[in-house]
Amino acid sequence: MEAVTGALVDFSPRRQMVWKETCDPTVYRVHTLGDTWAEVTEGVSYAWSRERYDWSVPGIVTLTQLEGNIVEPVGTIRYEITARPGGRARIVCERYRRFRGRRGRILGTFMVLFGPRILRWQFRLALDRVTG
Q1: Most buried residue among 28, 93, 113, 131 by CB atoms closer than 10 A?
Q2: Which domains does the chain have, with CATH numbers?
Q3: Which helix (H) or strand (E) holds 130?
């Protein structure tokens, strides 16, 4: 469970290696970093967002969208991480995004159709990079 939360809220230079599919170095920027929160811009050149991460509640990491190039600043992502036997974790991800513009509507439709599968794959890759 700690490895999952740690990977989600690691804003060191290592983040670009762990989350390399969604953390383009030309976009990634840590604006401010607190003990249980961070304000970060990340994504890729054609789809980026500035979000406030909050991990003040144990087992929950919430991202609140502040701005983005293809989404309205009203979105949230909430990860709930629960410890499982054998050092495993159950991760529930709730996503809400309101896409805007032509590119946003196209990518939003793509995410509705294929997003869960792609996001699971990206998450597994990232955790494999953390846990070796």
Answers
A1: 28
A2: 2-131 (3.30.530.20)
A3: helix 101-131
